[in-house]
Here is the input.
Amino acid sequence: MDLSTSIGQKSPTEPLSEGNSFTERRILDSDGALLADLAHRVWGTPRDLRYWEWKYRGNRGRDNGHIVVDHGGVARSAAGYWHRDLLIDGKPLPWVLMLDMMTDPGYRGKSYWKIVSYGRTMARQVLLSGFTNDNSRNLYSRILQRHNSLRIDTTVPKWILPLDLEGTGIPGPARRVSAAAFRGLISVRCRTQAFAGSYRIELLRSADPCLDDLWDRTRASYPVIGNRDRSYLSWRYFESPQPFRFWTLWKGGDLRGYLVTCVDKRGGRNRGLIIDWLVDRNAPGDFRMLVKHGVRDLVASRVSRIETWMLDNFKPWTSALRSLLFWRKWSGRYFMIYAPDHLADWNRGDLQQAFVTMGDADYPGPGSDTVSGDTHAAEYTLAS
Here is the structure.
Protein backbone atom coordinates (compact mmCIF):
# COMPACT_ATOMS: atom_id res chain seq x y z
CA MET A 1 0.00 0.00 0.00
CA ASP A 2 1.23 3.49 -0.86
CA LEU A 3 1.06 5.16 2.53
CA SER A 4 1.62 8.59 1.04
CA THR A 5 -1.68 8.39 -0.88
CA SER A 6 -3.76 6.76 1.86
CA ILE A 7 -3.29 9.57 4.35
CA GLY A 8 -6.32 11.54 5.38
CA GLN A 9 -9.69 10.14 4.46
CA LYS A 10 -11.81 12.77 6.21
CA SER A 11 -14.08 14.98 4.14
CA PRO A 12 -12.23 17.88 2.44
CA THR A 13 -15.07 20.23 3.43
CA GLU A 14 -15.73 19.06 6.98
CA PRO A 15 -16.95 22.10 9.02
CA LEU A 16 -15.01 23.23 12.05
CA SER A 17 -16.30 22.83 15.56
CA GLU A 18 -16.66 26.63 15.80
CA GLY A 19 -19.52 26.48 13.30
CA ASN A 20 -20.14 26.75 9.63
CA SER A 21 -18.45 30.13 9.24
CA PHE A 22 -15.18 28.34 8.59
CA THR A 23 -14.33 25.40 6.36
CA GLU A 24 -11.36 23.08 6.63
CA ARG A 25 -10.28 21.38 3.42
CA ARG A 26 -7.25 20.07 1.59
CA ILE A 27 -4.82 22.57 0.08
CA LEU A 28 -5.41 22.59 -3.67
CA ASP A 29 -2.94 23.39 -6.42
CA SER A 30 -5.17 26.40 -7.17
CA ASP A 31 -4.76 27.86 -3.64
CA GLY A 32 -1.60 29.81 -4.44
CA ALA A 33 -3.23 33.22 -4.02
CA LEU A 34 -4.82 32.26 -0.69
CA LEU A 35 -1.51 30.97 0.68
CA ALA A 36 0.45 33.98 -0.62
CA ASP A 37 -1.97 36.36 1.08
CA LEU A 38 -1.95 34.40 4.37
CA ALA A 39 1.86 34.24 4.42
CA HIS A 40 1.99 37.99 3.85
CA ARG A 41 -0.27 38.61 6.84
CA VAL A 42 1.59 36.15 9.08
CA TRP A 43 5.23 36.74 8.12
CA GLY A 44 5.23 39.88 6.00
CA THR A 45 6.63 38.03 3.00
CA PRO A 46 5.94 39.37 -0.52
CA ARG A 47 2.81 38.05 -2.21
CA ASP A 48 4.79 35.86 -4.59
CA LEU A 49 2.05 34.02 -6.48
CA ARG A 50 4.44 32.07 -8.74
CA TYR A 51 6.23 30.65 -5.70
CA TRP A 52 3.04 29.41 -4.02
CA GLU A 53 1.65 27.97 -7.25
CA TRP A 54 4.91 26.01 -7.70
CA LYS A 55 5.44 24.95 -4.11
CA TYR A 56 3.10 21.97 -3.83
CA ARG A 57 3.22 20.72 -7.43
CA GLY A 58 6.09 18.45 -6.40
CA ASN A 59 3.64 16.33 -4.40
CA ARG A 60 2.30 14.97 -7.69
CA GLY A 61 -1.31 14.80 -6.48
CA ARG A 62 -0.60 13.63 -2.93
CA ASP A 63 -1.96 15.44 0.12
CA ASN A 64 -0.69 19.04 0.17
CA GLY A 65 -1.95 19.68 3.69
CA HIS A 66 -4.97 21.49 5.09
CA ILE A 67 -6.27 25.04 5.01
CA VAL A 68 -8.98 26.87 6.99
CA VAL A 69 -11.01 29.36 4.94
CA ASP A 70 -13.64 31.73 6.34
CA HIS A 71 -17.07 32.43 4.81
CA GLY A 72 -15.56 35.33 2.85
CA GLY A 73 -13.04 33.07 1.13
CA VAL A 74 -10.04 34.34 3.16
CA ALA A 75 -7.51 31.81 4.43
CA ARG A 76 -7.09 31.98 8.21
CA SER A 77 -4.78 29.03 8.89
CA ALA A 78 -2.81 26.45 6.95
CA ALA A 79 -0.45 23.53 7.39
CA GLY A 80 1.43 22.21 4.37
CA TYR A 81 3.40 19.05 3.58
CA TRP A 82 6.07 17.96 1.16
CA HIS A 83 6.13 14.25 0.30
CA ARG A 84 9.37 12.40 -0.46
CA ASP A 85 11.05 9.11 0.25
CA LEU A 86 13.68 8.95 2.98
CA LEU A 87 16.24 6.24 2.29
CA ILE A 88 17.50 4.50 5.42
CA ASP A 89 20.27 2.03 4.59
CA GLY A 90 18.98 2.12 1.03
CA LYS A 91 15.36 1.27 1.90
CA PRO A 92 12.84 3.97 0.91
CA LEU A 93 10.26 4.92 3.54
CA PRO A 94 7.41 7.47 3.17
CA TRP A 95 8.64 10.82 4.50
CA VAL A 96 6.61 13.97 5.01
CA LEU A 97 8.06 17.39 5.80
CA MET A 98 5.71 19.69 7.72
CA LEU A 99 5.98 23.31 6.66
CA ASP A 100 4.02 26.57 6.32
CA MET A 101 2.37 26.21 9.73
CA MET A 102 0.67 29.60 9.86
CA THR A 103 -2.37 31.21 11.47
CA ASP A 104 -3.71 34.70 10.83
CA PRO A 105 -2.53 36.92 13.74
CA GLY A 106 -6.14 37.89 14.48
CA TYR A 107 -7.19 34.27 14.93
CA ARG A 108 -4.45 32.83 17.10
CA GLY A 109 -5.39 31.08 20.32
CA LYS A 110 -8.63 29.74 18.83
CA SER A 111 -7.40 26.23 18.04
CA TYR A 112 -7.26 26.77 14.27
CA TRP A 113 -3.67 25.58 14.13
CA LYS A 114 -4.63 22.43 16.02
CA ILE A 115 -7.44 21.80 13.58
CA VAL A 116 -5.09 21.95 10.59
CA SER A 117 -2.31 20.11 12.42
CA TYR A 118 -3.34 17.12 10.40
CA GLY A 119 0.06 15.63 11.20
CA ARG A 120 -1.47 13.83 14.18
CA THR A 121 -3.17 11.48 11.73
CA MET A 122 -0.32 11.43 9.26
CA ALA A 123 2.26 10.69 11.94
CA ARG A 124 0.74 7.28 12.57
CA GLN A 125 1.67 6.16 9.06
CA VAL A 126 4.87 7.85 7.87
CA LEU A 127 8.12 9.38 8.98
CA LEU A 128 7.19 12.97 9.80
CA SER A 129 9.73 15.73 10.19
CA GLY A 130 10.29 19.47 10.24
CA PHE A 131 12.94 22.14 10.47
CA THR A 132 11.73 23.92 13.58
CA ASN A 133 12.63 26.85 15.79
CA ASP A 134 12.29 26.90 19.57
CA ASN A 135 8.55 27.69 19.48
CA SER A 136 7.48 25.26 16.77
CA ARG A 137 9.73 22.54 18.20
CA ASN A 138 7.69 22.43 21.38
CA LEU A 139 4.44 22.56 19.42
CA TYR A 140 5.48 19.66 17.20
CA SER A 141 6.37 17.64 20.27
CA ARG A 142 2.99 18.17 21.95
CA ILE A 143 1.07 17.20 18.82
CA LEU A 144 3.13 14.27 17.60
CA GLN A 145 4.44 12.44 20.64
CA ARG A 146 1.09 10.74 21.37
CA HIS A 147 1.33 8.30 18.48
CA ASN A 148 5.01 8.02 17.65
CA SER A 149 8.51 8.44 18.98
CA LEU A 150 11.15 11.10 18.42
CA ARG A 151 14.04 9.59 16.44
CA ILE A 152 16.08 12.66 15.53
CA ASP A 153 16.27 16.01 17.30
CA THR A 154 19.45 17.77 16.30
CA THR A 155 20.55 21.35 15.86
CA VAL A 156 21.24 22.58 12.34
CA PRO A 157 24.46 24.60 12.17
CA LYS A 158 24.68 27.48 9.73
CA TRP A 159 28.05 28.00 8.04
CA ILE A 160 28.78 31.62 7.14
CA LEU A 161 31.42 33.33 5.03
CA PRO A 162 31.06 37.09 5.83
CA LEU A 163 32.55 38.64 2.70
CA ASP A 164 31.66 42.16 3.87
CA LEU A 165 33.27 41.39 7.28
CA GLU A 166 30.12 42.45 9.07
CA GLY A 167 30.24 41.59 12.74
CA THR A 168 34.03 41.69 12.90
CA GLY A 169 34.19 45.01 14.76
CA ILE A 170 36.23 46.71 12.02
CA PRO A 171 35.02 50.34 11.58
CA GLY A 172 33.26 51.39 8.36
CA PRO A 173 35.99 52.84 6.06
CA ALA A 174 38.61 50.33 7.18
CA ARG A 175 36.12 47.49 6.83
CA ARG A 176 35.45 48.34 3.18
CA VAL A 177 39.14 48.21 2.39
CA SER A 178 39.60 45.03 4.41
CA ALA A 179 36.56 43.41 2.78
CA ALA A 180 38.03 43.99 -0.68
CA ALA A 181 41.25 42.30 0.41
CA PHE A 182 39.29 39.48 2.04
CA ARG A 183 37.38 38.81 -1.17
CA GLY A 184 40.68 38.55 -2.99
CA LEU A 185 41.96 36.08 -0.42
CA ILE A 186 38.85 33.92 -0.79
CA SER A 187 39.21 33.94 -4.57
CA VAL A 188 42.80 32.71 -4.20
CA ARG A 189 41.73 29.96 -1.80
CA CYS A 190 39.10 28.87 -4.32
CA ARG A 191 41.66 28.19 -7.00
CA THR A 192 41.55 24.51 -7.78
CA GLN A 193 44.67 22.52 -7.19
CA ALA A 194 45.90 20.03 -9.77
CA PHE A 195 44.02 16.74 -9.78
CA ALA A 196 44.76 13.52 -11.59
CA GLY A 197 42.61 13.21 -14.69
CA SER A 198 40.47 15.79 -16.45
CA TYR A 199 37.67 17.46 -14.51
CA ARG A 200 35.28 20.17 -15.60
CA ILE A 201 32.35 22.04 -14.05
CA GLU A 202 29.29 22.92 -16.13
CA LEU A 203 26.08 24.79 -15.48
CA LEU A 204 23.17 22.41 -16.06
CA ARG A 205 20.07 24.12 -17.48
CA SER A 206 17.56 21.23 -17.45
CA ALA A 207 17.05 18.00 -15.53
CA ASP A 208 19.19 15.64 -17.58
CA PRO A 209 18.77 11.83 -17.33
CA CYS A 210 22.34 11.72 -16.01
CA LEU A 211 20.95 12.89 -12.66
CA ASP A 212 19.23 9.53 -12.18
CA ASP A 213 22.55 7.78 -12.86
CA LEU A 214 24.28 9.97 -10.27
CA TRP A 215 21.58 9.23 -7.69
CA ASP A 216 21.80 5.48 -8.34
CA ARG A 217 25.60 5.53 -7.88
CA THR A 218 25.84 7.74 -4.79
CA ARG A 219 22.83 7.04 -2.57
CA ALA A 220 24.30 3.89 -1.04
CA SER A 221 27.11 5.95 0.51
CA TYR A 222 24.62 7.74 2.80
CA PRO A 223 23.04 5.96 5.80
CA VAL A 224 20.08 8.37 5.71
CA ILE A 225 19.21 10.68 2.81
CA GLY A 226 16.14 12.17 1.16
CA ASN A 227 15.37 11.14 -2.39
CA ARG A 228 17.31 13.15 -5.00
CA ASP A 229 16.33 11.52 -8.27
CA ARG A 230 15.79 13.38 -11.53
CA SER A 231 12.04 13.87 -11.02
CA TYR A 232 12.52 15.48 -7.62
CA LEU A 233 15.41 17.69 -8.76
CA SER A 234 13.46 18.81 -11.83
CA TRP A 235 10.61 20.13 -9.68
CA ARG A 236 12.77 21.48 -6.83
CA TYR A 237 15.31 23.45 -8.88
CA PHE A 238 14.47 23.59 -12.59
CA GLU A 239 10.70 24.22 -12.38
CA SER A 240 11.00 26.65 -9.47
CA PRO A 241 10.37 30.35 -10.19
CA GLN A 242 13.54 31.03 -8.20
CA PRO A 243 16.50 30.89 -10.60
CA PHE A 244 18.95 28.47 -9.01
CA ARG A 245 22.38 27.78 -10.49
CA PHE A 246 22.88 24.04 -10.81
CA TRP A 247 26.61 23.27 -11.12
CA THR A 248 27.74 19.79 -12.18
CA LEU A 249 31.18 18.19 -11.81
CA TRP A 250 32.37 15.88 -14.59
CA LYS A 251 35.35 13.64 -15.09
CA GLY A 252 35.43 12.68 -18.72
CA GLY A 253 31.86 11.59 -19.48
CA ASP A 254 31.01 10.69 -15.86
CA LEU A 255 28.92 12.98 -13.70
CA ARG A 256 30.60 13.09 -10.29
CA GLY A 257 28.23 15.41 -8.42
CA TYR A 258 26.26 18.64 -8.34
CA LEU A 259 26.00 21.77 -6.21
CA VAL A 260 23.10 24.27 -6.23
CA THR A 261 23.47 27.97 -5.41
CA CYS A 262 21.38 31.13 -5.61
CA VAL A 263 21.55 34.81 -4.70
CA ASP A 264 18.85 36.00 -2.31
CA LYS A 265 18.22 39.77 -2.46
CA ARG A 266 15.46 39.92 0.12
CA GLY A 267 15.91 42.49 2.86
CA GLY A 268 17.97 44.75 0.63
CA ARG A 269 21.12 42.69 1.01
CA ASN A 270 22.61 40.08 -1.30
CA ARG A 271 23.14 36.71 0.36
CA GLY A 272 24.75 33.86 -1.51
CA LEU A 273 23.22 30.52 -0.57
CA ILE A 274 24.68 27.05 -1.13
CA ILE A 275 21.35 25.27 -1.23
CA ASP A 276 22.11 21.63 -1.97
CA TRP A 277 24.69 19.18 -3.29
CA LEU A 278 25.22 15.51 -3.97
CA VAL A 279 28.50 13.65 -4.38
CA ASP A 280 29.68 10.23 -3.31
CA ARG A 281 30.19 10.58 0.45
CA ASN A 282 33.48 8.68 0.12
CA ALA A 283 34.86 11.21 -2.38
CA PRO A 284 35.38 14.40 -0.36
CA GLY A 285 37.60 15.83 -3.08
CA ASP A 286 34.59 16.07 -5.38
CA PHE A 287 32.71 18.15 -2.80
CA ARG A 288 35.78 20.35 -2.30
CA MET A 289 36.00 21.12 -6.04
CA LEU A 290 32.30 21.93 -6.30
CA VAL A 291 32.14 24.12 -3.21
CA LYS A 292 35.23 26.07 -4.31
CA HIS A 293 33.62 26.79 -7.64
CA GLY A 294 30.29 27.70 -6.06
CA VAL A 295 31.97 30.11 -3.63
CA ARG A 296 34.07 31.69 -6.38
CA ASP A 297 30.96 32.24 -8.51
CA LEU A 298 29.05 33.79 -5.61
CA VAL A 299 32.00 36.07 -4.75
CA ALA A 300 31.98 37.27 -8.37
CA SER A 301 28.22 37.95 -7.98
CA ARG A 302 29.10 40.55 -5.30
CA VAL A 303 27.15 38.95 -2.47
CA SER A 304 27.72 40.31 1.02
CA ARG A 305 27.95 36.88 2.62
CA ILE A 306 27.61 33.20 1.79
CA GLU A 307 25.57 30.78 3.91
CA THR A 308 24.83 27.07 3.95
CA TRP A 309 23.65 24.36 6.33
CA MET A 310 25.70 21.35 7.24
CA LEU A 311 25.40 18.94 10.13
CA ASP A 312 28.54 18.14 12.10
CA ASN A 313 28.53 14.46 11.10
CA PHE A 314 30.25 15.14 7.75
CA LYS A 315 33.77 16.01 8.93
CA PRO A 316 35.59 16.11 5.55
CA TRP A 317 32.99 18.54 4.26
CA THR A 318 33.06 20.80 7.31
CA SER A 319 36.86 20.81 6.99
CA ALA A 320 36.47 22.00 3.39
CA LEU A 321 34.29 24.89 4.56
CA ARG A 322 36.72 25.83 7.33
CA SER A 323 39.57 25.89 4.80
CA LEU A 324 37.60 28.54 2.88
CA LEU A 325 37.23 30.55 6.14
CA PHE A 326 33.58 29.74 6.79
CA TRP A 327 32.65 29.87 10.44
CA ARG A 328 30.02 27.84 12.21
CA LYS A 329 27.02 29.49 13.85
CA TRP A 330 23.81 28.27 15.46
CA SER A 331 21.07 28.76 12.84
CA GLY A 332 18.15 28.78 15.26
CA ARG A 333 16.83 25.62 13.60
CA TYR A 334 16.35 22.02 14.68
CA PHE A 335 15.85 19.01 12.44
CA MET A 336 13.35 16.55 13.88
CA ILE A 337 12.02 13.20 12.71
CA TYR A 338 9.15 11.36 14.37
CA ALA A 339 8.36 7.75 13.46
CA PRO A 340 5.28 5.67 14.29
CA ASP A 341 6.05 2.85 16.67
CA HIS A 342 4.55 0.22 14.36
CA LEU A 343 6.83 1.19 11.45
CA ALA A 344 9.59 -1.30 12.23
CA ASP A 345 11.93 -0.13 9.49
CA TRP A 346 12.49 3.23 11.19
CA ASN A 347 15.44 1.84 13.12
CA ARG A 348 17.48 0.75 10.13
CA GLY A 349 20.83 2.53 10.22
CA ASP A 350 21.89 5.46 12.35
CA LEU A 351 19.37 8.26 11.91
CA GLN A 352 21.81 10.69 13.51
CA GLN A 353 23.84 10.31 10.30
CA ALA A 354 21.08 11.95 8.26
CA PHE A 355 22.23 14.16 5.39
CA VAL A 356 20.22 17.39 5.16
CA THR A 357 20.77 20.70 3.37
CA MET A 358 18.84 23.93 2.86
CA GLY A 359 17.30 22.23 -0.18
CA ASP A 360 15.57 19.68 2.05
CA ALA A 361 13.70 22.60 3.60
CA ASP A 362 11.87 25.25 1.56
CA TYR A 363 14.77 27.68 1.25
CA PRO A 364 15.06 30.44 0.21
CA GLY A 365 11.31 31.01 0.60
CA PRO A 366 8.90 33.38 -1.15
CA GLY A 367 10.02 36.70 -2.57
CA SER A 368 9.96 37.95 -6.14
CA ASP A 369 13.27 39.77 -5.57
CA THR A 370 15.18 36.49 -5.22
CA VAL A 371 17.37 36.43 -8.31
CA SER A 372 20.23 34.46 -9.75
CA GLY A 373 23.79 35.66 -9.68
CA ASP A 374 25.38 37.57 -12.53
CA THR A 375 26.06 35.37 -15.53
CA HIS A 376 29.54 33.90 -15.54
CA ALA A 377 31.13 31.21 -17.64
CA ALA A 378 28.85 28.21 -17.76
CA GLU A 379 31.78 25.87 -18.05
CA TYR A 380 34.94 25.88 -15.98
CA THR A 381 37.70 23.44 -16.82
CA LEU A 382 39.75 22.39 -13.81
CA ALA A 383 43.47 21.88 -13.86
CA SER A 384 44.42 18.41 -14.97
Observations:
- The chain has two domains: 3-156, 157-334+349-381.
